[in-house]
């Protein structure tokens, strides 16, 4: 009698938009035993040939992610995952709890020290339709400057806080790893080693191929047209720290 191989161990990469979730997934997918299949809840994600999958129930979607996922012939899988950004949970209100109930799930949570940077980057990407830049790409013009409504900032900051709290309360510390976007850009190899160790996968030497770069290197006061208006509005409150200008992050080359 033959025995089928055990299902790969499940994981999910979670975060607000523009926090490095795609970059971490790219690094993880260099491993011969790990496969993360992009954004499960994004209709247009090229990893998923079934474009009608979002018509399925939440449970059926998770079965698709962890039991019936698209495979790659060059990998001997021990771990399989997907990526979900916070706004996608808002579109499917019951999905977060269904995910949290999935047996043996491990979660890698990506965060950014300054949530205003995340929002600014998201709005720029939507306007320019330029979402990714790698070190091998030719130099391109900087993204457009943006104007951010106060109400949009308030909603986004609160959503980021609420999401981080919800994730922290939904998973045991042994099943949750948080990685900062800033550290991921500066130390991708070290972050990958930490993530693989957390998942229980043998370490991997990075290939050294093109690495992801920040699209925007200018400080916030040069990229957000109404920066001073926003700084005055949020002064003295819990989000005032987002308007303190720090030195730019310079990723490894």
Q: State Rg.
A: 19 Å
What's the number of helices?
10
Oligomerization: single chain
What is the percentage of strand-forming residues? 5-15%
Are there runs of 5+ residues with pLDDT below 50, and where? none
CATH H-level homologous superfamily name: P-loop containing nucleotide triphosphate hydrolases
Mean pLDDT: 88
CATH topology, what is it called?
A: Rossmann fold
Strand order across the largest sheet: 2-3-1-4-5
**Broad structural category:** alpha/beta
CATH structural architecture: 3-Layer(aba) Sandwich
Largest sheet: 5 strands, parallel
Would you count the extended β strands for me? 5
Give helix and strand order, one letter per element, not per position. Answer: EHEHEHHEHHEHHHH
Distance between the termini: 53 Å
Query: In which range does the helix fraction lie?
Result: 25-40%
